[in-house]
Amino acid sequence: MEKKYKAALYGRLSREDGDNLESESIKNQREYLRRYLEKQADISLVAEYFDDGYTGGNFNRPGWKKLMQAIEDKKIDTILTKDLSRMGRDYIKMGDYIERIFPEKRIRYIAINDDIDTAYETPGLDYLQFKLLFNDFYLKDGSKKIRKVIRSKKEQGQYTGWKGIYGYKRDPKDRHKLLVDEAVRDVVVRMFALAKQGYGPKGIADLFSKEKIPNPSTYANLNRGIKKETSTLWCDRTVGELLENPTYIGHLTQGKRKKVSYKSKKEVRIPKEDWIIVKNTHEAIIDEETFYTVQELLKKNKHNPYKKKDYLLRGFLYCKECGHHIGINTSQDKKRRYCACCYYTAHSKFHVCSPHAINYDQLEQMVLEELRNLANTWVDSAWFLEKVKEAMLKKDAHETIEKQICSVKAKIKQVTGYMDKAYLDKLDDKIDCAQYERLHLSWQEELERLTKKKQDLEKALAQYTQQKSKQECESLKDKIDSFLSFKNPKRELLVQLLDKIEISEDKTIEIHYKFGD
């Protein structure tokens, strides 16, 4: 008696299918598979499973998971797809399913257009590996093209996220633009205000969690698996990333992460110098002065995320001999505060460096007195204002732009090397002329893009000093006046004036200013 197979139809569609979206639609796949089944007397239809809008790069799809469960429940023993690519495009996983998993579970697999039927020695099985490899290449090539399109949009200042970053929402009239989300504007403003007061990311995160303010993922109603008690709490890393994001001053910042592979959803962080930043694309929530002051404070608050025990000079003190941070400690009786070399404290038994111990309160008074005398001397001088202004300019943008230029130059050198290698390969007959032309054209386009980016960055660097307004100069004057009017100035003012303070073994103090020659 002829065996009667119990079959399930499976189809899949995603945007990686490019121009074939209509011809490969779920509706067309279903009709095609049903017409095929009508001619198969030994196969009866039991179920249908389809995944619309899911990549073929992995098998994490709801329809496919239901199909696998049907196999485990022994409801079906045959799978039909229009072709191999409808099942998936991952070369390794597809081979594992067809050559190991399906045979072990006694599953018959049919890919109609590829002439594959595992119940028989069909011709398509002889070329299975080549077809799987080609489908995988198609996935990789499609992913590369999509990334290029998305990057181009980012460089044009178009927002490409599916949801606005915390504090913003997508414009309903233009999904590539951002509008301020008034519902959480005050939370963002308060976050930066707390950071300006001296709070670190951990301190802000704990405060917001204690006040039960919904964190970004909770507010966005994101579904991230099993909900835990800590799922609604704020994370210091999240706060840190928000505080460092120039999007809040109106400069759209994207490209902060990238996927490790076109087959994986895992992402890695990108260095700041490689972020894609387009200025003045939307309404700012935070003013630039607050934003860049916070950036300086974040560096100084790095080793103490909480506001409590917030010493005025914390983060500014360095050991003259070893270059490590000088920490601020309190004596056991809580009556005396003193400084000590952190490197010595951590490795004292190895006799590295020396304590550099010095009374903190005396040091703070000495530094403040020095700053007051200096400010009194120069407060009415245009020279002082110009020096502070120049220092702020350098701190705000100069280093960032220069790093970006260096990064682009390195990429230009790399691309030029690829072009030279392709030329040598052509001379050595390792590749033919057609292959060389394709490679050369591709690298030439990339070289032109990088060259233009380098020119734009160099132009921005040259013009940056002309972008500061009279209002900012007046703001600097106000900072100095506020410094002179208070006995205990705030840390946010000190970060505008001080670079670092070095303490020598003999307790000599060297103050390095941001406006020094």
Record keyword descriptors for this entry.
517 residues, alpha/beta, Rossmann fold, Hect, E3 ligase catalytic domain fold, 3 domains, three-stranded mixed sheet, 17 strands
Spell out the blueprint of helices and strands.
Elements: E1 5-13, H1 26-38, E2 43-52, H2 62-72, E3 78-81, H3 84-87, H4 91-104, E4 108-111, E5 116-117, H5 128-155, E6 168-171, E7 174-180, H6 185-197, H7 201-210, H8 216-219, H9 236-243, E8 252-254, E9 257-259, E10 267-269, E11 276-278, H10 288-300, E12 317-319, E13 326-330, E14 337-341, H11 342-346, E15 358-359, H12 360-378, H13 382-427, H14 433-463, H15 470-485, H16 491-497, E16 498-503, E17 509-513
Parallel strand pairs: 1-2, 1-3, 3-4, 12-16
Antiparallel strand pairs: 4-5, 6-7, 8-11, 9-10, 13-14, 14-15, 16-17
Helix pairs in contact: 4-5, 6-10, 7-9, 10-16, 13-14
Give a quick summary of the entry.
It contains 16 helices and 17 strands.
How is this structure best described in words?
- With 517 residues, the protein is an alpha/beta fold.
- It folds into three domains: 5-147, Resolvase, N-terminal catalytic domain (Rossmann fold), CATH 3.40.50; 168-300, Hect, E3 ligase catalytic domain fold, CATH 3.90.1750.20; 317-402 and 463-513, no CATH class.
- Helices cover 47% and strands 15% of the residues.
- It has helices spanning 26-38, 62-72, 84-87, 91-104, 128-155, 185-197, 201-210, 216-219, 236-243, 288-300, 342-346, 360-378, 382-427, 433-463, 470-485, 491-497, and strands at residues 5-13, 43-52, 78-81, 108-111, 116-117, 168-171, 174-180, 252-254, 257-259, 267-269, 276-278, 317-319, 326-330, 337-341, 358-359, 498-503, 509-513.
- It has a five-stranded mixed beta sheet with strand order 2-1-3-4-5, sandwiched between helices. It has a three-stranded mixed beta sheet with strand order 12-16-17. The protein has a three-stranded antiparallel beta sheet with strand order 13-14-15.
- A hairpin with a 6-residue loop joins strand 13 and strand 14 (337-341).
- Helix 4 (91-104) crosses helix 5 (128-155) and helix 10 (288-300) packs across helix 16 (491-497).
- It is elongated, with a radius of gyration of 31 Å.
- The mean pLDDT is 82.
